[in-house]
Amino acid sequence: MDSLCPRFSLIKKPVLFTALVPLVFLLVFYFYPLGGIFIRSFMDHGDFSLTRLLKVFNSPRMAGIVTFTFWQASLSTLMTLCAALPCAWVMGSFDFRGKKLIMTLATLPFVLPTIVVASAFQALLGKGGIMAAMFPFYDGGLEGSLGAILLAHVFYNFSIVLRVTSGFLSSMGKDISQAGSMLGASPLQVFIKVVLPVLMPAITGASLLVFIFCFSSFGVVMILGGPAFSTIEVEIYRQAAHLFNLPVAAMLCLLQVLFNFLMMWLYASLQVKAAQFLPKAEGAGLKKPVSILQKLMVGLCTLFIIIFCTLPIAGLFLESLWHNGGPSLIYYRELFFNTSGSIFYISPVDAVFNSLLFALAALCMSLVTGGCAAYFIRYSNGRIGDFFDSLFMLPLSTSAVTLGFGIIITLDKPPLNLRTSLFLIPILHTLVAFPFVVRVLLPALRAIPSSLKDAAVIMGASPFRVWMHVELPIIARALSVGAIFAFTISLGEFGATLFAARPEFATLPVTIYKFLGQPGTMNRGQAMALSSILMLVTAAAFILMETVREKAGHNGF
Amino acid sequence: MKKSFLFNAVISGLLIAVFQIHVPEISLADTLHVRESADTLHVRESADTLHVQESADTLHVRESADTLHVQESADTLHVQDAAQTDISAERNHGFRIPVGEITLMTHDSFSISADVVKKFEVQNNAKIIFLKAGDAGEALNKAILSKNNPLADVFYGVDNTFLSRALKHNIFISYTSPMLSEIDDNLKLDPENRLLPVDFGDVCLNYDKKWFAQRNIPPPTMLEDLVKPRYKGLLIIQNPATSSPGLAFLLTTISRFGEFDSLDFWKKLKANDILITSGWKEAYWGKFSAASDGDRPIVVSYASSPAAEVHFADKKLDDAHLDDAHLDDAPTAAVTDNGSAFRQIEFAGILKGSKNMELARKLMDFLLSRTFQEDIPLQMFMFPANKNASLPEVFEKHAVITPEPASLAPEEISGKRELWIENWTELML
User: Fold this and answer.
1) Model confidence pLDDT, tens digit, residues B320-341
2) For B143-167, what is each residue's pLDDT tens digit?
3) Are residues B257 and B334 in the same domain?
4) Strand, coil or helix: what is B350?
5) Are residues B400 and B263 in the same domain?
6) Do A330 and B309 touch (CB under 8 A)?
């Protein structure tokens, strides 16, 4: 994919060593445990029989589950694109006041525990909810339906498409589209013939992430869809955790991993050759909305994001501040007291601290692992690159229960006695987060013409200086999007955090779940208060990260 | 003044060291250094700091205040009434007190008071490490998978629906605790005492009292009521394949109507527009009219849930510490009569391969003792298995124990559980 003089690139060879970082990481923390549990399930398990396995797989129920998994994931991805792409275009083209806030708001749903979102949806869309009260034609029919699953998937994944695409667009610069207009193309023609093709790698990359997320959706399907719906992931959980039918669970997990690998591989090899362009320093492509039409677009987009993303969230905030028919801070105050004297009590300050610590660790690890992986894929031979690109995406779609069981039986001896180690939490978070960094970074890396670096090399710059002064400023935007997602994934992650099982290091989502484990209004109120704190912490971290990046950007980065 | 005490302390320390004399009791204010004390050493009311090096067999300390350093003390160390700062200092700053470690593996819903933990730790010079390993099913599966290299010494939280699976995989060691004499015989299900009953709770219907009062409809009193047209569209249950109260409710119907007639009952329930959720949280916090914005007033929960509702009701900060000072009326009530409640019994046992059998046995005894048993109700909202344990007031008032719960033999449950769930899934989903 190198355009001008591929063999001339002096920085090409050493870059390939970067593959070692993600490969070793995956080998130790992913393939080894997963292989362990597969072998154990198929070989070691006393009551394993092929006929029984085949019987499970030939049942119409299983066929239904597989079909449904594909179908809902495709539909969810399509709907997410429809909702997010127009907004992404506006966000990536215009600069206006409050934009940072709007972008932050749009990303908040990502960290919320599903059970909390389900409760918020119930208040908004349920039979006795606000929507049913406001609109007589709506009867609360979304409750426990496919519609609820789709809506929740769009709600959660909206920000992936929004951030990835708008980030790419804003670094694209106006000159390409301006050239089109000068040559006499209408704005629509410019968009379809110029902007869209250049944007395509970012759009497909984001869609792929959304698809994989929805494909292996667990909480949303289980909690919002109810038992009438089941994805492969839900079925794996059912088989592994409740029926302890490990052969079936392992088989399903293998199936899911294979599906994803094939899909990724197909995507990687069919991918249209990415257009290269001279990326602008960040924000250069942004303009202020001037005409009425442009202002209208910005207004509509802002309104949509506020209504769609913040309405359910606002409900949570209100509930956490409302007590006995009036505003009150009692739920927040009560969080600071260990009323029941439990040894597992954790103050909100400690929970926030734990969450931030793990998220920061996951962020650093994901950037390094994902960055190395992206560089390797970018500079390796087409086919090898495609293969590893597909391989690196696998952890995204792997059942947490199965991987957890694998870790129990494999990482149990020194030097890797990690079963109950604290390090396991950021490691597991990184497994899910680093493919994100790869997907976000790769389009940006591919868009850099190698002539740009070659020029710097010829002029005598060392490889490090080339990277520091040529590449880094260009990919900084993509890196920061990757960082934000790695951070967010870690903040909202629940399964892995629970897995490492050391109650004294409980994170915010774990603490929220703990409150919802027992009846009583105080528990519900405190869960809502903690959810609000989780969102506030996330928002504050976003704004801090963006500010730091902007400051660094002004100093030449 | 301080100096003289210090001098005194050093001298007495040296005396002990040189002459190896038995010092029955020392009462000191500031600092005490002890090196190589003989058989037994008693210390009362040492105030600021106590240094002990190589004390011999036994060392008793009463009311030590701030810091306590012990290096290489011998067999036993008793500390009584050590002030709180003392214990935390030793924990947080890693002062060397000879401490045994014992790991308790359990499920997410487990909870225990900090005071109760401390009592065990002080009595046995041990530290308990807690591992929470997912929901009840997941935690047990992890224990089974780690059989060859166990994650913990003691496992807490196998219930009677999982009992057979746990015993089949042979991961527990039999231990006939002396405390078993205080445990209700009806709860003992393993004759070999590999798993000992610790607590129990009844899964049953809960209803929203206000909802029924406002509409002047009598609340249901037995399972049979649920299929009546009057209760159409009111019930929420959980999927037995993914939720333990859900499974318990399915088992209730099988116990009440028999394996085959229960399917008939479920058909009628389905026709009566019940709502099925995946887990208890979604049902209770998402759909139940008494606890959420949901509109259904009957839910499958626990007989102790009304007590939890009262205990965790909105209260002012001022009376938060006045332990249930106002025992208001519960907003919900439980239906437990006519065999409509399924008794879930939770067991604990010592895991095979435990490296600390002595301490593991002591922890098992402790789990069955009144100290821990009386902590169970308000921490986990389950009932203690110990007959002598007294219940908190809120339980006495708002939680019911039915004399005739529905129950099935664990072997029958484990043999047919998959089949029953499959049949149910086919019929209901």
Assistant:
1) 444 444 556 899 999 999 999 9
2) 999 998 899 999 999 999 999 889 9
3) yes
4) strand
5) yes
6) no
Task: Count the Cβ atoms, other than its own, within 10 Å of residue A223.
Answer: 26
A115 vs B: CB within 8 A: yes
Which domains are delineated in chain A?
A: 19-43+63-330+354-554 (1.10.3720.10)
Judgement on whether residues B168 and B122 belong to the same structural domain of the protein: yes
User: Quick check: A284 pLDDT over 70?
Assistant: no
The complex scores an ipTM of 0.84
Read out DSSP for B145-202?
HTTTS-S-SEEEEEETTTHHHHHHTT-EE----GGGGGB-GGG---TT-SSEEEEEEE
Segments forming the whole domain that contains residue B264: 202-343+396-428
Counts of helices then strands in chain B (DSSP H, E): 15, 18
CA–CA gap between residue A129 and residue A120 (Å, rounded): 10
| Residues B355 and B326 grouped into a single domain | no
Q: What is the domain-level CATH number for residue B218?
A: 3.40.190.10
**How many separate domains does chain B show?**
3
Token couple for A52: 């029984």
- Tell me the two tokens of residue A22: 């993600």
Distances (CA, A) of B281 to A122, A373, A506, A523, B245: 13, 40, 19, 12, 11
Burial class (CB in 10 A: 0-12, 13-18, 19+), A335: buried
Q: What whole-number distance in Å separates Cα of residue A55 and Cα of residue B357?
A: 44
Spatial CA neighbour of B406 closest among B226, B208, B195, B262: B262
Which residue is it, tokens 């085959």? B260
Amino acid identity, position A506: A
Are B133 and B189 in the same domain? yes
Q: How many whole angstroms separate alpha carbon A454 and alpha carbon A6?
A: 10
> Cβ distance B47 to B66 under 8 Å?
yes
A435, two tokens: 């493919």
- The continuous run of DSSP H or E covering B132 comes out as strand B126-132
**Window A:306-325, CB contacts with B under 8 Å:** 323-324
Mutate to test the interface with A, among B118, B119, B138 (most CBs of A within 10 A): B138
pTM, full prediction: 0.82
Are B278 and B424 members of one domain? Answer: yes
- Same structural domain, B206 and B270: yes
Closest CB to B308: pick one of A333, A405, A520.
A520
Same domain flag for B309 and B237: yes
Determine which helix (DSSP H) or strand (DSSP E) holds A430, and give its type and residue range: helix A424-447
Among the partner residues A115, A241, A344, nearest to B138 by beta-carbon distance = A241
